[in-house]
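go over both lines:
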Amino acid sequence: AHHTGSTAMPKLAVRTEKRIAKFGPEMIPFVFEEMVECDSETAIYFGQTLARNGVDGLEYIITRLGDYKNREHDLINLILAISYFKIPEATKVIPVILNMAPQSNHQVTSMALYVVGRLVQTHQPSAFSAGLRSEMFNAVFRFLSDAQGLVRKNAARTLGKMLRKGLLTAEHEKKAYNAFMAITGRDEQHNW
């Protein structure tokens, strides 16, 4: 009986986020402010509520993102919220996310890389132009040599997701392969 409460709460939260989203775009500023002010777990539900508002919710986040660039906790919640958008326009935010990635706070960097990977997973390859694919690869690849393990892990996972989705050129595949061989100690040439 003790487990029923733990599954009832997420169901209630999902029902609540659906109801709030039904109020439409006029609720976006309220939901946004609540998401910024709350803890990371609760922010997930507010982010999903914003995502249910589609382009309006995404555009609101984008216009406000710069206001939070020096508030790491809030920035992490905002970047994570972008990962819940299933609309094609979400992929166009990737350059903005990648520009937020080189932070002094490795958790912001790590979250930015994680979200890029999530967007790769949830969108069709056709949603990523050749230019965006190249920009993503170059930005993410740089973080393979970051001093923080969490950042390196998310960079490697994002490159793996890009590879599985077919977003890498042959040249990028070779470069990633050489890097992974070197990282795992199986490349004696250290050619990356």
About this structure: Residues 4-22 form the longest helix (19 residues). Residues 50 and 57 are 5 Å apart (CA to CA). The chain has ten helices and no strands. The chain has a mean pLDDT of 87.
